[in-house]
């Protein structure tokens, strides 16, 4: 017997890959979307096929489930660090390290709490970076979609060849295949050339995904050499140029110490890290050439503006990413550097930043909402295929989020969502199951239904 059908209807439905629908509905059977369209049409289709259904009528706007494209759920218990304000990356890192190593943490329980907070906020899939194995199964345990990325950092070339590669291969065996697995080379400044060359190959041989922090620290920005470097004056590319590889630098930090000005983005690109199976987080300190490299390689960027503000970094160049047509997604980062795991608060922050940077096009609301849904799915390669997410379409996974906003017109709904959507999640549906209503995580049986 086929699964029963549930119709989720709302005054505004926003599919992301089709125009918004007034008085729309999404019919769900099992964990899949069966129909999307105007409510009257959807129920007529079901009646014509003789399919009985139950209906859940929601107030406000119905969207695809939000996709958090960069987070560390295991750091949910480190909110005291995220509540501070810092003078830059090094200042924040000192506070983070003191809390991380200075007291006991239950990484599994903290990650589970982060997952619950995410579900309450309308998030259905997460790019979750894991540093401690106790948190490795949080996405699967919580029933969330997304990818668990095992973080790799602090390996120098010799140690990597001696034991690092084998260690990471062993650790990778602990990453659950469901919902998805990958590796996260932490950042260009925390890994030498050897691991940065090997890790993409390890991932690609297994058909997994890559995710790294890039352009988060001002240290990674392109710069000019202030003075000639003894013994290297004849090397083409000293300063701003790209031919630093002729000096056989062992790491990005060594590149900086020698006076080369290539950005961290060009550095990892030369090593073959970037690609359509990779997305980066932050992308703050990026030139137009760096952003063009990301587009050329098919690499999306997850913007985390509230985390950048807490750490004391510059805001990301949102307006430039939008004008240039870059693939963008949205991330909260963790509670160790952000006030909450409410992705819509970061959407609102991106809206303010884009306007302040001079972006005046009328498509801003829709593009930022797309970044928080379809954009996050695209960043992880989950926007296509049999288990696709990030948009409301027939056959896609039935991941939905409902927001209590003024939905008298489509324009009003989109504006309120993009500018003031934080704290407005009304319901979250994951794989066809209602997982949260009005801030409470629950099962579908607790939600009122009516049968026509």
Rough outline: globular
Helix/strand structural class: alpha/beta
Helix content: 25-40%
Termini gap: 21 Å
Largest sheet: 8 strands, mixed
Gyration radius, to the nearest Å?
A: 23 Å
Low-confidence stretches: 235-242, 444-452
Number of strands: 16
Enumerate the strands of the largest sheet in spatial order, edge to edge or round the barrel: 3-2-1-4-13-14-15-16
Query: Can you count the helices?
Result: 15
Strand content: 15-25%
Mean pLDDT: 93
List the topology elements.
Elements: E1 5-13, E2 21-29, E3 32-38, H1 39-48, E4 53-64, E5 66-71, H2 79-82, H3 89-102, H4 107-120, E6 123-130, H5 138-142, E7 145-152, H6 157-172, E8 181-185, H7 193-205, E9 209-214, H8 252-257, H9 264-270, E10 278-282, H10 288-297, E11 300-303, H11 305-311, H12 318-324, E12 328-330, H13 343-356, H14 364-379, E13 400-403, H15 410-420, E14 425-430, E15 433-437, E16 440-441
Parallel strand pairs: 1-4, 5-6, 6-7, 7-8, 8-9, 9-10, 10-11, 11-12
Antiparallel strand pairs: 1-2, 2-3, 4-13, 13-14, 14-15, 15-16
Helix pairs in contact: 6-7, 13-14, 13-15, 14-15
């Amino acid at each position: 017997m086929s699964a029963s059908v549930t119709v989720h209807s709302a005054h505004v439905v926003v599919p992301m890959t089709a125009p918004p629908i007034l008085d729309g509905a999404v019919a769900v059977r099992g964990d899949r979307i069966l129909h999307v369209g105007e409510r009257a049409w959807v129920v007529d289709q079901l009646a014509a096929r003789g399919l009985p259904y139950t209906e859940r009528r929601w107030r406000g706007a119905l969207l695809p489930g939000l996709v958090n494209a960069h987070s560390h759920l295991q750091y949910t218990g480190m909110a005291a660090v995220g509540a501070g304000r810092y003078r830059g990356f090094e200042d924040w890192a000192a506070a983070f390290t003191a809390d991380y190593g200075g007291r006991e943490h239950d990484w599994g329980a903290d990650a589970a709490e982060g997952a619950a907070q995410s579900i309450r906020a309308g998030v259905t899939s997460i790019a979750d970076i894991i540093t401690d194995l106790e948190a490795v199964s949080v996405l699967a345990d919580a029933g969330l979609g997304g990818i668990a990325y095992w973080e790799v950092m602090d390996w120098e070339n010799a140690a990597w060849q001696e034991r690092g590669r084998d260690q990471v291969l062993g650790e990778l065996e602990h990453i659950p295949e469901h919902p998805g697995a990958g590796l996260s080379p932490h950042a260009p400044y925390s890994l030498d050339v050897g691991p940065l060359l090997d890790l993409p190959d390890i991932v690609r041989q297994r058909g997994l995904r890559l995710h790294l922090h890039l352009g988060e620290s001002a240290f990674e920005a392109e710069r000019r050499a202030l003075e000639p470097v003894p013994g290297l004056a004849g090397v083409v590319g000293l300063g701003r140029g790209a031919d630093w590889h002729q000096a056989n630098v062992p790491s990005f930090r060594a590149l900086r110490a020698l006076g080369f000005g290539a950005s961290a983005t060009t550095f990892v690109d030369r090593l073959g890290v970037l690609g359509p199976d990779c997305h980066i987080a932050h992308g703050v300190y990026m030139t137009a050439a760096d952003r063009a490299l990301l587009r050329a390689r098919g690499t999306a960027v997850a913007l985390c503006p509230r985390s950048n503000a807490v750490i004391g970094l510059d805001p990301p160049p949102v307006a430039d990413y939008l004008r240039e047509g870059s693939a963008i997604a949205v991330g909260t980062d963790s509670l160790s550097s952000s006030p909450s795991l409410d992705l819509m608060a970061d959407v609102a922050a991106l809206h303010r930043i884009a306007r302040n940077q001079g972006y005046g096009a009328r498509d801003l609301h829709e593009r930022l909402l797309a970044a928080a849904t379809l954009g996050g799915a695209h960043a992880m390669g989950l926007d296509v295929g049999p288990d696709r997410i990030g948009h409301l379409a027939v056959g896609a996974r039935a991941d939905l989020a409902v927001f209590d906003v003024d939905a008298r017109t489509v324009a009003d709904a989109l504006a309120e969502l993009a500018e003031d959507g934080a704290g407005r999640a009304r319901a979250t549906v994951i794989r066809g199951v209602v997982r949260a209503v009005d801030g409470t995580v629950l099962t579908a049986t607790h939600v009122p239904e009516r049968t026509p």
